[in-house]
Amino acid sequence: MADQEQVVKLYGTWASPFSQRIEIALKLKGVPFEYIEEDLINKSPSLLKYNPVHKKIPVLVHNDKPVAESLVILEYIDETWKNNPILPLDPHEKATARFWASFIDNKILATAVKIGLCKGEEKEVVILEVCEQLKMLEQQLNGKDFFGGDKIGFVDIVAFWFQITHEVLGGDFFTPEKFPGLFEWIGKLQEIDLVNECRPPREKHLAYVRGIFECLINTPK
Amino acid sequence: MADQEQVVKLYGTWASPFSQRIEIALKLKGVPFEYIEEDLINKSPSLLKYNPVHKKIPVLVHNDKPVAESLVILEYIDETWKNNPILPLDPHEKATARFWASFIDNKILATAVKIGLCKGEEKEVVILEVCEQLKMLEQQLNGKDFFGGDKIGFVDIVAFWFQITHEVLGGDFFTPEKFPGLFEWIGKLQEIDLVNECRPPREKHLAYVRGIFECLINTPK
Fold this sequence. Notes:
The structure is a homodimer. By secondary structure, chain A is of the alpha+beta class. Chain A has helices at residues 17-29, 45-50, 70-80, 91-117, 120-139, 154-158, 162-169, 180-189, 193-197, 202-218, and strands spanning 8-12, 34-37, 59-62, 65-68. A four-stranded mixed β-sheet of chain A has the order 2-1-3-4, with helices on one face. In chain A, helix 1 runs parallel beside helix 3, helix 4 (91-117) packs antiparallel against helix 5 and helix 7 packs across helix 10 (202-218). The longest helix of chain A has 27 residues, at 91-117.
């Protein structure tokens, strides 16, 4: 299908790591797209129409067909536009990438949120847990520039949120001394122009992430 | 690669819907495999070696290379053995199947577990929630025999656990009157010999699932 026949829209929000994933993937593929900023306090009728189940961003709409859930969208993009593969082509390497992406979303992210929710001794236990998880992930770099090898791939895109969240949550446990591999990797990501284009303004972004965690900590449960 | 060169092992447990998924997929593909029953109270050194991150079943070991996480394994199987596709070939249909598989694992399963954990009014709210989720899933059948169309596919395999869990948790909310589509689908699954081979002995299985929920309900939190 020629490019001029393609209409690609991305419903996202500027600070969401989940919509940033999709922006990075589309840019890696060189797919022109219209970005539509959603107001999550007043969700648009389009978002509710395209993602009636979760009512969440990101949603990719390709020729009026919606795809929701960031990992599902990444796979869709990789299968629809074959240039610059995001996932490895070998089935076992592909499975390994999917395994670590799931680990980031279902384990590391869940534990990172708990850091924001816990206090005192409980918080210490959660920090130990996330450090163990981050160490396991770091080992996958194993001397490579990126999880994808010598260029950015699926796991790098999925782990992209580390580069800002750690500044809010990291404290003295997520440091270059303790995680040299992950910090080198963050540095490598910062060298990629295309990735930098998807990075929101730093101070504004930090303030937003801090806002989320302050709300989590202070809202009665 | 010729079949005789392939060594395929599945580490699972008889009552786990997650290892049942893999059994069904391998049988659909006609892949011969060795099934190794794990004792989850005394995990084997092999399991710990092949899945050091989660230390969980199922693990598929193909020519000594392990793949863990049931959805990741299903994708691996479908990409490695191309006959009898489990996922649709069209990228948008494939994305839709992945979306619903994720919905089953991350939403319906999580809510079903909550039913076992809640009491009184709270339980009523959770039951309403799971009914709404099941209704959304049921709509995907839309007159078809299976979620995959006229034959069993990815979403059918992932939703396979409904066929027994509902007998423990279903009570008066998961009934053929309220969910005629899902009950017809359960009936269609029961007509497939290959699927029946993966079904554990009924009374033993029911007792096991009941045991899990009784433990969840009665263990102090």
